[in-house]
Amino acid sequence: MAENGERLQKVMAQAGVASRRGAEKIILEGRVEVNGELVSKLGTKVQPGDEVKVDGVPIDGSEKKVYYLLNKPRGVVTTASDDKGRQTVVDLLRDVDARIYPVGRLDYDTTGALIMTNDGELANQLMHPKGRVDKVYTAKVKGIANMADLAPLKKGIMLKGRRTAPAKVAIEQVDHDRKVSFITLTIHEGRNHQVKDMLFKVGYPVEKLRRDRYAFLDLVGLQPGDYRDISHDEVKRLKAGDYRFLRRK
What we know:
CATH class of the largest domain: Alpha Beta
CATH topology of the largest domain: Alpha-Beta Plaits
EC number: 5.4.99.-
Number of strands: 17
Domain RNA-binding S4: 6-63
Number of domains: 3
Protein name: Pseudouridine synthase
Number of helices: 7
Pfam family, one: S4
Radius of gyration: 20 Å
Low-confidence stretches: none
CATH architecture of the largest domain: 2-Layer Sandwich
Helix content: 10-25%
Family: Belongs to the pseudouridine synthase RsuA family.
Largest sheet: 9 strands, mixed
Shape: elongated
């Protein structure tokens, strides 16, 4: 293979096969061919005109980019495919012909805002830690919450040997009869199970979790399982790094 050219995972992401991380996983699984040669190691570079196939199907670098916002329901996995046969978020977008994938992850039992696209460059921009994209969650937790317990989250706490970034936190409702509380938490990191782990660490196990907003994209008008096009202007804002939430009048 030639040393010049683009990295294979970047070419795959630009063609809408998967995000760069997802493309790396596909390569390591031995599902990619370049000019008829099986490639299963990272670092391969391809030249203009090289034929790249994924699962035997040629990729098309000119595929039209599409962007959707999904209200992910419970009991659906945030992957493009699942070896256990469970329903995936891609299955929910039945009318979409493009090869799309989720930007980031939501747990199996977590609901809410999830971007679906075939634009690998935007996906990587949004998931990169430097992007600092706000993600707003509402959690139903066990216990009668108080701000004294939650205050450490505002400064960051240690989770699995790493300190979390400062979060915004508010108590939305307390149900004394059922001994549960509803807490809003805003973070810009994306570690696995992070919101659940943060709230558990300060004494409030999560019973239900919903992501209400990703950047400025919220769930207004979307029932669980519904999705909509992300508008041209919204895509422009995301690409420009303008993630501010502007409240509707």
